[in-house]
Specification:
The protein is of the alpha/beta class. The protein contains ten helices and twelve strands. The two termini are 34 Å apart.
C-alpha cells in the first residue's frame, strides 16, 4: 500500500482512483465493508482504491473535552488499512487550515485535483468541508461537475438488535472489559502495544514474572481486570495472562498499569515492543488478604487462560 501523510507527497500522475473518506477509528467490520466495496470497485474499473483519513479526531480541535480516546494509533490504523488491501492511504493533518477548507474546495483540490477521483464511496450520513456543510446531495452535484460517480454504502448492523457497528460501540464494550464482544465488531482481537520497561519485579518474586508496558500505549486500554491474551513479540505469538490496574494487594502500584505474564516462556523482553491481543475477560482486579491467596488465584487464572487460548 502506498502511504502519503501530505497532499504534496501524492505523485502528480496518481490515479485515477476510487476514494472513500473517514476517520476509520478501529477499522471495524463496518469500515471493512466499505473498504471491501472500495477495493472491489477499484479492481472492476481499473481505479486505485484510496482512503482519505485524518491524523486525529476533528473533535480534538473543536471540542477536546468531548473527544473520545482513539481505538488505535495512527500507526495501527495505517497497518490495518494496508491489511484491508487498499492501494493507497492519504492521512491528512486535521488542523485549523484543513478545517477551514470549504466542501467545494475539498472536492476540487483533494479528491479531484490530487487523487483524480472517478468514484467516491460514502455513507448516507457523510459530511465534509468547513462546518460539515457538505452532504451527499452536494457530493453528487460536485461529482456531476467534476466527472466522478458517487456510490452509497449501507451501514453494517448486527443481527438481532440491528445496531449499527461503530467505533463508539466498540469503545463502550472495551470500557466494560467485554473484549470478546468487541472482537466480534472489529473482526479481530482488540490490541494495544508499547515498549516493555522495568518494574518492581513483584511478579518474579511471586513466580509469575511479568512484562510491564510503558504507559505510552498505542491502542485503547480496556477496563481494569485480568485477561486472556496473546502477546506478540517480533512476529511470534505467546499465550499470556494480562492484568490492567493497580494491583490493590500491594501499595504504591500506579493506576491502570498493564502487565503481561507469558505462560511457560522465558523471554528477555526489556526494551522490546510487545503487542497484546485481548481474547477474553477473566476477572476483576481484587485485593487479597495475603500474598499466598494472590499466588493461588494467579495459578487458577493461568490454568483458565490456557484452556481459553487452546480453543
Amino acid at each position: 500500500m502506498q502511504f502519503f501523510d501530505d497532499v504534496a507527497e501524492v505523485p502528480s500522475d496518481f490515479g485515477p482512483s476510487a476514494v472513500t473518506v473517514g476517520k476509520f477509528d478501529g477499522v471495524h467490520l463496518g469500515h471493512r465493508a466499505v473498504l471491501d466495496a472500495l477495493r472491489t470497485a477499484g479492481e472492476a474499473e481499473g481505479l486505485a482504491s484510496t482512503v482519505v483519513t485524518f491524523d486525529r479526531n476533528p473533535l480534538s480541535l473543536f471540542a477536546p473535552e468531548k473527544c473520545p480516546v482513539a481505538l488505535v494509533s495512527n500507526r495501527q490504523k495505517v497497518e490495518l488499512l494496508a491489511d484491508a488491501g487498499v492501494d493507497a492511504t492519504l492521512m491528512l493533518r486535521f488542523d485549523r487550515e484543513l478545517a477551514g477548507v470549504s466542501a467545494e474546495d475539498f472536492v476540487s483540490q483533494i479528491l479531484v485535483g490530487t487523487l483524480h477521483a472517478r468514484l467516491v464511496l460514502a455513507g448516507s450520513d457523510f459530511r465534509f468541508g468547513a462546518k460539515a456543510a457538505g452532504d451527499i446531495a452536494l457530493l453528487r452535484a460536485l461529482g456531476a461537475e467534476h466527472g466522478f460517480e458517487v456510490q452509497l454504502i449501507e451501514d453494517v448492523c448486527t443481527e438481532g438488535d440491528g445496531r449499527r457497528t461503530s467505533s463508539t460501540w466498540v469503545r463502550e464494550l472495551l470500557e466494560e472489559g467485554r473484549v470478546r464482544e468487541a472482537a466480534e465488531l472489529l473482526g479481530r482481537p482488540h490490541s494495544i502495544r508499547s515498549t516493555v520497561v522495568r518494574g518492581e519485579a513483584r511478579g518474579r518474586d511471586l513466580g509469575f514474572p511479568t512484562a510491564n508496558l510503558a504507559p505510552e500505549l498505542e491502542g485503547f486500554r480496556p477496563a481494569d481486570g485480568v485477561y486472556a491474551t496473546w502477546a506478540v513479540v517480533d512476529g511470534v505469538r505467546y499465550p499470556a495472562a494480562t492484568s490492567i490496574g493497580n494491583n490493590p494487594t500491594f501499595e504504591g502500584v500506579p493506576e491502570h498499569r498493564v502487565e503481561a505474564y507469558l505462560i511457560d516462556q522465558s523471554v528477555d523482553l526489556y526494551g522490546r515492543e510487545i503487542e497484546l491481543e485481548f481474547v477474553d475477560y477473566i476477572r476483576a482486579m481484587n485485593r487479597f488478604d495475603s500474598v499466598d491467596a494472590l499466588v493461588a488465584q494467579l495459578g487458577r487464572d493461568v490454568e483458565r487462560i490456557r484452556e481459553i487460548l487452546a480453543t
